[in-house]
Design brief:
45 residues, mainly alpha, rod-shaped
Length: 45
């Protein structure tokens, strides 16, 4: 059972190396958030 656990862990690590699940577009901030709007720091041209 311990060998199988290690084997599954190695397989998951190899899969993550080949096809990573990190998607940068999920974490990209698209402009100022509500805290910035509450501060009122608009450039108001």
């Amino acid at each position: 059972m311990n060998f199988l656990t290690h084997l599954i862990g190695y397989a998951a690590a190899i899969r993550e190396f080949v096809a990573p699940t990190y998607r940068p577009e999920r974490y990209y901030m698209r402009g100022p958030g509500p805290a910035c709007a509450r501060r009122g720091n608009s450039l108001g041209i």
